[in-house]
Amino acid sequence: MLPAHRKKLTAVFFVLLLAGLVLVLWWRRVPVPGVGLILPHDTYTPRREAFWPSRGRILDRNDSVLAYTGPRYLLVLPSWGHLDSTRLNRLLGWPDSAFEYRSRDLRRRELPLQLDLTASEYDILRRHQSEWPKLKLREYTARNYATHVAAPVLGYAYANAQPFLYQAQRLARGRFYRLRNGGLETYYNGLLKGSFGAYHPLVDVLNQPHGTWATDTIYHPGQDLHLSLDTELQAYAERIMRERKGYIVALDPATGEILCYVSAPTYDPATITALGRGRERSALLLSEDMPLLNRAALQASPPGSVFKLVNAAVALQLGGITATTGFRCDQSLIHCVHEHPDARNLTQALKYSCNPYFYQVMRNVVNNVPDSLVQPVDTCAVRHQNLAAWTRHVKSFGLDTLLGVDLPQERPGFIPTPGYYDKRRGRCGWTYGSIYSLSIGQGEINLTGLQMANVQAIIANRGYYYIPHFVRSVGTSGPLPRFREQHRTLVDSVHFAELIPGMVAALRRGGTAELANLDDVGISVAGKTGTVQNDEGDDHATFAGFAPAEKPKIVVAVYIENAGFGGLSAAPCAALIMEKYLRGKIAKKRKRWENWLRCGDLAEQGH
């Protein structure tokens, strides 16, 4: 038995201990069930919760996946010694010498050597890895392309293309910076990659949050891009262009959505980022045909006679002509490339593409002197005023400016002004006789393929357009707002309607584009051919038009370098694209074009 005083001391000790514990708990505010005490901030544990977004996919108008982020597979070889390549070929079901062919680009690199595999090849090697102890397999995440078409459209994200960028700087020196095309992967990179998110909670001993210790960043998942591109039409267009140099642009005039976009010659989009394809990248960079040049957006060229449509519309608006105005085909003014009757009105002039007619059309605009002016007239001032009015109306077609298409790079083209000629020849040193090549789309005028197609969309819509674009929806939110804005020209709709009969007549018997006629399948096509003069070789062939002529659903612009007369090469190409899109197939009588035309000159085939 403890003495009484020791019992009292023990009791006092426990009371003081309990009181001290309560005091500490109160002071430090640790949550105790049934008590509700809370710790001060300096005793909370800081934590960080991170969220990494996956890159969004790219899909075509039919929701077929074109690009996605997913697993990739590598075969890693520590050395070349003692590798039985014949046995490896047999195991993977490859033809003889396939391994040597696939690894030919790796032999000069430092070890270890890495070879891309398909998922099935990777699985076979994984199951037989015990038989190949020196081979290593690696799985990683990368950008995959599920299509072999539309390389200039899809492009690449710079972060995924470092080997290519290095090769470009080393092999092509500064030329690369004029040719590179990051495509949609670069233009929409911020939306595709999403944004990293991190939360920074302070938690107590029971893992309950109590505020934050740093500023949170909001997580946004990578957005999918739904394109207007028709992959089947795209593949068809690339196939008929083959290795020719030029472009095809097709779009829906009602929305500005681009249906197919070919810059030829083209290449496999995976070439830029895939491992083991360095030799192919080198060939692209050093090729004289410049396949990396995004021709429809970056190559601004004279449009040729296709531009007569713009000149006619502006002349109608400015009073230079009416739809019934006729002119003689006066060869002393300007040479006409083929014989035809005199054009008694605008419809016939467009049908025959009469150069002297359009020479006189623009002369009426530039040299026009209003009757109200009192003589003598300052012809130099009047000429400046008239050309300035012409320039202002032409530019309202979206020319001499960036259209704003959703690609990282685009050229504005060029439309000359009075100030441009003043600077080159003096204020009164130029006359219509020194600038008349503008009347037939030559001289200083330069348009891109996107602008050529957009001009046709304007005519199809009778005076307005939507900015051409590839992405019809970002996630579920639709296209970017600026692609929904309607842009109108300074030409009244009635004058565009006056162009249509001549454009339709151009594809009928006796017209410059009669080979592109689709009347046999019930499709009325409206269009205009062009032959662009080229001092360094054969002329370039162009065609631009739309179908059906009454309620257009597709606009097509074709430009083929060194292909000669537009009616014998570019126009048939456009007709095939239109028929393929509107009918889904090609009539039997034109099937042979797919086999031997390939956008060549039908005249060479006796047609």
TrEMBL record:
Residues 53-208 form the Penicillin-binding protein dimerisation domain. The keyword DNA-binding does not apply. Signal peptide: none annotated. Residues 246-579 form the Penicillin-binding protein transpeptidase domain. Keywords: Carboxypeptidase, Cell membrane, Cell shape, Cell wall biogenesis/degradation, Hydrolase, Membrane, Peptidoglycan synthesis, Protease, Transmembrane, Transmembrane helix. It is a single-pass membrane protein. InterPro entries: Beta-lactam/transpept, Beta-lactam/transpept-like, PBP_dimer, PBP_dimer_sf, PCN-bd_Tpept. This is Penicillin-binding transpeptidase domain-containing protein. It comes from Hymenobacter segetis.
